[in-house]
Write a structure and sequence with these properties.
Length: 230
Amino acid sequence: MTSRPIAHIHAALPDRPFVVAQLGQSLDGRIATVTGESQWINKEEALNHVHRVRAAVDAVVVGIGTVVADDPKLNVRRVSGRNPARVVIDPRGRMPAVANLLADDGAERLIVRAKGCAAPLPAACEPIEVPLAGDGKLAPLDIVAALFRRGLRKILVEGGAGTVSGFIDGSAVDRLHVLVAPVILGSGKPGLALKPIDKLTKALRPAAEVHILADGDVLFDCDMRSSHGG
């Protein structure tokens, strides 16, 4: 497939954070069935693309819900490259002591949690404390800033859908990669769920590059900083 989406990451300016968010979904916008099955919605080339992105960034971020539900490894296995730092957003200390992403493979393992959280950390994990925002959540821009201060400049927000949606609503995403599989589920868990709008003029309309992958999935590479209503 084209290397252009990865080139955008490599070309990111060094003086500010650069955040890529990714989501894999069906043609009708579902990321899982009603029972939660999601593993084979996207095909091999889409999975390869995600691993290429991981290899191009400094950190990969997921929410604690994704860790509990899917127990991802978040490493680079399908392509050559180094493993990025693995970051879990866990405001109140729910991180399991045993999880795949805690494997000791040389990558940093970081837990982002609310300032003052007293829950114990799993071995080999380091905390990053962020103050709770007014809505009782951790603000995406605060998380990104904390990671940037640690030297993690290029960041992939990989899941789940709620975390990706929160980062988009929080204006913390530079590019959004949506991998669409030509399959229709008809029901199940939806992908993006953003704050409601009342008029189409308020809809996000990012400039997008479209790439058809070799096995039929389609990648929409969206420039969220160019997004405008209308």
